Task: structure prediction
Amino acid sequence: MIETVKVEIPTGEIKEYPIIIGENLLKDSGTFIKNHTKAQKVLVVTNKTVYSLYGETVKESLNKESIEYDFFILEDGEKYKNIESLEALWQKALELKLERKDAIIALGGGVTGDLTGFVAATYLRGIDFIQIPTTLLAQVDSSVGGKVAVNHKLGKNLIGAFYQPKLVLSDINTLSTLSVEELKVGLAEVIKYGFIEKSCNLLELNFNFINYLETKKDKIFALDLQTMSELIAYCCKLKARVVKQDEKEAGLRVILNFGHTIGHAVEKCSNYENINHGQAVAIGIKGAFYIAKGKNLIKEDYMNSALNLIDLYGLNYKIPAKISIENLMDAMLLDKKVESKRVRFVLPVNEGEVAIFNDVENSLIESVLKKLY
Result:
């Protein structure tokens, strides 16, 4: 079973591209690549773990289509999504003499996709880019919508661009190699979509994602293929609808950062070690609900039901004790969403609905942060 979700872009060279979701797609990856780019030479960027699992399968498929290729193997981990890795990739592309008609392919998770996409956006002022996400996080979120970036020592994703891929190819069988903790990284983003669902303006599907998540937990953790296909497709549809309305985060697209204001600060203050993106976002989502309750935006019943859903999926993480509130506050002020020196928060205002606020008092933020340790 294959499902295709179309991402429509209101401006720019690429007007639309497909997200193809299905089983055992990697063995035909060369065919999909050939159908969506004119490139005769490609650079495939991946990491050691993903290469050991899927490198040979992708090579065989590229060989079948007579596509010339080379691989670049990254180190694993968020801390390698940096300028040094970026320079190494530019160097590799130059050594291969990649031309504008060629393509760069990201095979892996969110780190690989973000870094590779930024290289594609900047090398020769832009060459074709294809995403082959192999983690739940990448399949439901980071591979879709064209946000590509690297981290700086002062903050996460501060150096980046909007650059849309030609194709996103999501083979759900790759999820079977993830540990439970790796799966939870993506589930934090999945749950995020439940809390912003109505604000994405995809109301015609009448899906009720929160109810779906509450009733399908066991099938999701069992990686039931039909359930995972439905889940990934719906998350992609929600994000695609938001991107269609606001490609470059001028307004509505900010809602996709729900939970990320505090989350990114936690990641930055941990030096991208010992706490992963999903754990940080789960902490940030809890913080957003506490702030919303403190501002009387939501009722306590809704907050408690949201916290219960987070607990149901085993995402009740804490800020590490070694991180100070002062450092977190400083990190939030360097967040890319800061406007006029005010930290912007995406906060729940009703079930499945969020809004953007830049009037949250520091005293409230600090009191909420204390609850998250």
The two ends are 44 Å apart (CA to CA).
